[in-house]
Each structure stands twice: as C-alpha cells, then as structure tokens.
Amino acid sequence: MADPQPKKLDLHRREMPKQPPEVRQHNFSEVALGYPIETAVEEARRCIQCKKPTCVFECPVEIDIPGFIKCIAQQDFTGGVSILKNKNCLPAICGRVCPQEEQCEKACVLVKKGGQIAIGRLERFLADWEAAQGVLGIPAMPPSTGKRVAVVGGGPASLTVAGDLIKSGHQVTIFEALHKMGGVLIYGIPEFRLPKAIVTREVEFLQSLGVELVTDFVVGKTRSIDDLLEEYDAIFVGSGAGLPWFMEIPGENLNGVYSANEYLTRLNLMKGFLFPKYHTPVKFHKRVVVIGGGNVAMDCARSALRLGAESRIVYRRSRQELPARLEEIENAEEEGVIFEYLTLPIRYIGDENGWVKAIECQKMELGEPDASGRRKPVPIEGAIATFEVDAVVCAIGNSPNPLIGATTPGLTIGKKGNIEVDEATGKSSRDRVWAGGDVVTGAATVILAMGAGRQAAKSIHQYLSSLP
Ligand SMILES: Cc1cc2nc3c(=O)[nH]c(=O)nc-3n(C[C@H](O)[C@H](O)[C@H](O)COP(=O)(O)OP(=O)(O)OC[C@H]3O[C@@H](n4cnc5c(N)ncnc54)[C@H](O)[C@@H]3O)c2cc1C
Ligand code: SF4
C-alpha cells in the first residue's frame, strides 16, 4: 500500500472541478463537481496527521478528521466512510454546505501557511463514493425498547435526532408541515448547491431503519404538542426558523416583492420553473433585486440569474462584511450577479397595477464598528440610487414561527421567538419536550442544527432509559 504520509509539506491545496460559469448560469445542475479519486488521494496525503488535531476541536460534531483523511490517503474508502459516519449521519450534505472555512479548515495547522487541508471536499468525496456503490447496508439494529418519540419538523436537527434514537431502539415518528422531508435542505438551498437526490437518499435511509414519516402535518394546527404527548413518551421540536423578516419600508406589499423563503420554495420544492411539467408556474422576471448578503441572498440571486433575469444584490455594508461563504460569493460573481455595496433600500415604487417597478436606495459609508463587531453603515446625506426592477427578494433573516410557542402552554419562548432550552441537553421548560436547531438558536447552520440534535438525542435516550 502507498505511503499515506507526504515526504515534505505540500501546501498546494487541490482544486475541485466546477461547471464553467457561462454554462452553469443557465442550468440548475450542481456547480461543484467533486474530487476525482486521484485528486482526493493526493489532497488527503497532504494531511500531516497532527497528534493534537486542531481541526477536530473546531468541528461541532467532533468527527475524527485525521482518521477519515488517513483512510482516503490509503485508498481505504470503506474505512473512511465508517469513521465519518460514526459522528456525522449527513456527510454528503455537510461536505457541500458546511462553513468549513470558518470551522475545521480555519483550525487546520496548515492554515497559517495558506495550505489548509480541504476537509469539506474530502468529506464530500467519501460520501459521494459511498453513494456510487449503490444501496446502503442497514446496520444491525438493537431490540425495540417500546418507547415512542415524536419529532417535529423534517430538517437536519430532526433527522439527526431520529437517526440517533432509532439506532438506540426507540420508535420514532417525524411530523413535517410540508409535503417533503428535509427542511431548508429541500425547500431552501437550491439544487445547484445541494442536489435534492442527496437529501432524499438520507431520508430514505432513515425510513429503511424504521423511522415513520408523516408529511402535511402542522404541529400546533393538525395536532398540538399536548395531543402528541398523550401518545408519545418524548417530543423533539426541530421546527426551524421559517418566519421571514421584512424591512418594513413603504411599498413592501406590492406584487413582485417576495420573501426569500417564498421565492426559493416556489423554485426548489414546487419546481415552478419546470411548468407545465409541475403545475406551479413561477413568473419569469427580467430584473430582480435581492436584499441581503448571506448565503440565502446568494442562493436567491443565483436562482434569479438562472431563470434569465438580470440579478442584483443590494447590501448595506461592503464586500468585506458579506456574511455569505466566500466560495458562494465568488461563484455568484463569476456567474454575473451584480453587487451594489453600501446601498440600503428605503422605498419600493409601484406601477398603476400594483406591481413593483423600482427600488429607491440610500447610499451608505462605513462608520465605527457596531455590536456585531462589523463597521456600521451610516447614510451619506442626499446620496440616493434608484434601480428599475420587476421583482424584489427580501433575504435579510428569519426567526422561528410562533405557532408552537402559541399553542403549547408552559413552553418558555425567548425574546426572538426562539424556544428556550438547557444548553447542554436541549431540554425545554415543558416536561418530556426537547428542542434544537434554528428554532432554538435562530437562523444558523446545518452542522450546528445537527450538533443540537445529537445532544438532545442523548438526553432523550437517557430519559427513556430511566422509564420502567
Ligand atoms: C436559502 C438558505 C441557504 C442556507 N445555506 C446554508 C449553508 O450553505 N450552510 C449551512 O450550514 N447552513 C445554511 N443555511 C441554514 C441551514 O439550512 C439551517 O440552519 C438548518 O437547515 C436548520 O436546521 P433545522 O433542522 O433546525 O430546521 P429547518 O431546516 O428549517 O427544518 C425545519 C422543518 O420544520 C418544519 N416545520 C416548521 N414548523 C412546523 C410545524 N409546526 N409542524 C411540523 N413541521 C414544522 C419546516 O417545514 C421545516 O421542514 C441556509 C438556509 C437557507 C434558508
Ligand atoms: S489540523 Fe490539518 S493537517 Fe492536522 S490533522 Fe487536521 S486536517 Fe490534518
């Protein structure tokens, strides 16, 4: 077997092939194509297998990173998958959308020399390699404990809880409000960044383990948490942060002004752009302005572009402060999204039929740092910019939907509409109810939602094990 260790430091991070911008700007297929085997092995062999692997300390789910990388270097892909899946049940998803540059890769010892290991790409490689082998084997399952758990919402927090609890022998049912499982992974993040087949595969795997899936079921409307507590021993709430924020400026109720959630759901979940194959048409807009600078804004702008629009991001700070992943900012730039920095919308202007036709913006400059540590944008007096548009997508943030809080007496809800829980266990103020993911933290990341799901599953298992 080849020597997995490099002879001397190799700081040349291997690139991942991508669809060329002029091609991908016209399709919804995945942009990044993944490492071929030889490149993955070369990249893995750069890892120096640190005795104190700083990369692992920054991973919210504590994956044995050097362990799975060593397996790739030795071309033992089966071994790598098994190490990876020991701590991460959704590696194909995390390998694509986790902010690795802010977590494991930022902590890699080689970062100071500019040659940090491409941990995310290697994770994706192993997950895709496993998928290419065909049908997943079902692990040996323990005998049933007879205990029943209801999980609210079908996003990554809930999928993690469901996987961990079913593997501990408990019966698990997931109740999802939409007609498909996956949460933001299905309705939010577009196909060109996260192919839906990957999410569906993970969900089907859980189903094959015996997790029961109930869709079109809105907890708090179809049945309340209290109703479910009559049938189930414990409940995990992973209902996410799906309530969109608006700017509350004049003209926001004009036709053609969307929330990011609505815009992306029409495309991703309802496949509006494939009308008449799907019976849910979307309007093809010529000029779209997206407000915001996070991953959600990038996803909206790049989707609009693919539908043939001139697509423009309006962001009130400068490029340096954009909160989106750098990779996605660069992808958007390469594809031709126009960026208007230091620009704050102040008014939407409508036509005689009630459709938005222009957006008026205040030009800004950067002042002193604010509470977030970023330099605060302040208006430049008299500097106004106007853009003609026929659609606006507001991607400035989300908070948890208030429904479950409003219909569950005794559940403590924080100022931002989040469910308050014990940090270490995810236990809420209500007996037998746990919560985790965006519904607790507000809009965050897939890996943090999964980490919270894992913690809650441990605590739920402990509780269920204490029952007669
Ligand atoms: C467009 C977009 C792009 C993003 N990009 C990234 C990225 O690149 N990297 C990253 O790490 N994170 C990204 N995120 C954030 C990430 O997707 C979320 O942090 C993560 O999905 C949260 O997981 P969750 O399980 O808590 O909730 P969600 O994924 O929101 O899932 C919650 C589920 O609960 C369901 N639900 C809600 N209320 C009820 C109810 N009453 N009854 C039944 N079901 C209910 C919802 O329909 C939903 O399916 C992005 C988010 C968006 C919107
Ligand atoms: S810190 Fe970097 S070099 Fe060290 S084990 Fe982790 S990935 Fe490998």
DSSP summary, beta strand count: 15
Globally, the shape reads globular
Largest sheet: 5 strands, parallel
Regions with pLDDT < 50 over 5+ consecutive residues? none
Overall SS class: alpha/beta
General description of the model:
With 468 residues, the protein is α/β, with parallel strands linked by helices. It has helices at residues 21-24, 37-45, 54-57, 65-73, 77-87, 91-97, 104-107, 119-132, 156-166, 184-187, 196-209, 225-231, 260-268, 295-306, 326-335, 403-407, 438-441, 446-466; strands at 148-152, 171-175, 212-214, 234-237, 243-244, 257-259, 287-291, 310-314, 338-340, 343-350, 356-369, 375-388, 391-394, 398-399, 433-435. Strands 3-2-1-4-15 form a 5-stranded parallel sheet, sandwiched between helices. The protein has a 5-stranded parallel sheet with strand order 6-13-7-8-9. A 3-stranded antiparallel sheet has the order 10-11-12, with no helix packed on it. Helix 14 (295-306) links the parallel strand 7 and strand 8 (310-314). Helix 2 (37-45) packs across helix 4, helix 5 packs across helix 8 and helix 14 runs parallel beside helix 15. It is globular, with a radius of gyration of 23 Å. The structure holds flavin-adenine dinucleotide (FAD) and iron/sulfur cluster (SF4).
